[in-house]
Amino acid sequence: MSVAFGSAVSSTNVNSAFVSKTTDSTTVGVLDLNNSGSGTRVTNVQQEINNLKNNVNAAVTIASGGTIAISTTQREQLHRVSGNGGAQTLSTTPFGTSAPTDGTIIRVLCTSDTNTISLVNNDAANGAIVNGNCTLKKYNVVTFLYDASLSRYIEIARNF
């Protein structure tokens, strides 16, 4: 329901048309937040909230030259990986060529001592900037930040 121009104001049409600040409210459509004095407009509040949660993915095995299938909307992601049938080196674009949201954090956790995963430094679009050799074994984690202005996944931490 909406309040049309010229309609009489009543508690029924006003309460049904707006989300309450003081009581629980439900909305079926998309809720936008747009207050010019409070910062950037949020055009789909529920989607923004969903994207803030940590996305933990099922363990996958990756072939030589393969990529890790990331989400382009989830802002924090954990990917459990191992090599397919032995030690494997990922593609020079290890997370594919579809860029995620600027500032996305991606953690890669290896689940095998023998089926290791290696990442190579690649200073090119959608490449990973790694701080030296990066071969992940069981329990090793490397963390990347995606920078949209550079179109690069930049290593920010590792535990090995």
Task: Write down how many β-strands occur, each being a DSSP E stretch of 2 or more residues.
Answer: 10
| CATH fold naming of the domain at 54-158 | Jelly Rolls
State the CATH architecture of the domain at 54-158.
Answer: Sandwich
- Classification by helices and strands: mainly beta
CATH class of the domain at 54-158: Mainly Beta
* Strand residues, percent: 25-35%
Radius of gyration, CA atoms, in whole angstroms: 22 Å
Main beta-sheet strand count, sense and barrel state: 7 strands, mixed
Compute the number of helices. Answer: 2
Sum up the overall morphology in one term.
elongated
Q: Overall mean pLDDT score?
A: 87
DSSP helix fraction = under 10%
Overview of this protein structure:
This protein is mainly beta and 160 residues long. The protein has a domain at 54-158: Jelly Rolls (Sandwich). The protein is built from 2 helices and 10 strands; from the N terminus they run H-H-E-E-E-E-E-E-E-E-E-E. The strands form 2 sheets. Strands 1, 2, 3, 5, 7, 9 and 10 form a 7-stranded mixed sheet that branches. Strands 4-6-8 form a 3-stranded mixed sheet, with no helix packed on it. The longest helix is centred in the N-terminal third of the chain and has 8 residues, at 45-52.
